[in-house]
Amino acid sequence: MIVNPQFFNYRIIIGSLIVGMAALGVFSFNTYQSVKAHQHFLDQEKKLVESELSQMILRYDDLSVTSELISDQLDSAKKTTKSALEELRLMKSDFSVLARFKSELSAIKSKNAILFKTIDSINLLNERLENEKLMAYSELNEQQKANKSLKKINKSLSNAIEEGALLTANSFSAKAYRSGIKSTSTNKAVQTDQIEVCFTLAENTLAEKGMKDIYIQVLNPLNNVIGEKGAVEFGKFLLIYSDKQRINYDNEVLDVCTTIRAQKNDKPFSKGTYYVSVFHKERKLGSTQIELN
């Protein structure tokens, strides 16, 4: 068989071209797949960085601080993070871009770690101070209740002591007399011109010793004062009295008697009940009465 050399050379050349094209196609396909995979990787890395920045912003929003200085630092960190996120979203996925933003993210994380730790410390301190304040308020409230109770007790004791120190009297009696060479007791109104009043000041070690003014008041059936000697004011209280006895009280039992003599305008005595009252200042120590026919 006779082969044409020129035809054979064409076949070799064509075969080489086909092999070369096939190899180039395979290489191009592999390169495309590699670039596609690399771009996918960069896109995923970009999303991860965006996600971390977004989570940081959400955490900023969840934080609550009372310190003005820390609040300013928090606002500054939030603005920096938002600015980085907005810039990253506008950038295409690129290795150099991601490298720069990862570096920024790392720096933000470092600053945040210090900032969040400071905020946690402040919040813990504020919580402890708030608890201490509540405990202090509770203790103060309990102390105020105790003080109020003690004031009531003290007031009660003070009132009891004051009441216990008051002058007291008993055994009140009154008798009508007709004057003459010898005074004679009577129960006849027309014969009566004087009334004897007697009482006993009781023993009281709490009472103040010294001179005491005792006032005796005798009212006739018409409610007029018999043997009026004068009047004395105790605040808004006006006492018109029939007699005044100044007594030196020494905390011991003391019997007191006094005679109320009728004045001209008291005579003759009216029939009826005569009311006798004994006072120390404005306080009534006791009373009795006498019936005249």
Describe the structure.
By secondary structure, the protein is an alpha+beta fold. The chain has two domains: 5-124; 169-292, Sandwich (Immunoglobulin-like). It is 52% helix and 26% strand. The protein is built from three helices and ten strands, in the order H-H-H-E-E-E-E-E-E-E-E-E-E. The strands form three sheets. Strands 2-1-3-8 form a four-stranded antiparallel beta sheet, with no helix packed on it. A four-stranded antiparallel beta sheet has the order 7-4-9-10, with no helix packed on it. It has a two-stranded antiparallel ribbon with strand order 5-6. A hairpin with a 5-residue loop joins strand 1 and strand 2 (184-186). Helix 1 runs parallel beside helix 3 and helix 2 packs antiparallel against helix 3 (95-164). It is rod-shaped. The N and C termini lie far apart (189 Å).
Task: Offer a concise description of the structure.
The protein is of the alpha+beta class and about 290 residues long. Helices cover about 50% and strands about 25% of the residues. It has a four-stranded antiparallel sheet with strand order 2-1-3-8, with no helix packed on it. It has a four-stranded antiparallel sheet with strand order 7-4-9-10, with no helix packed on it.
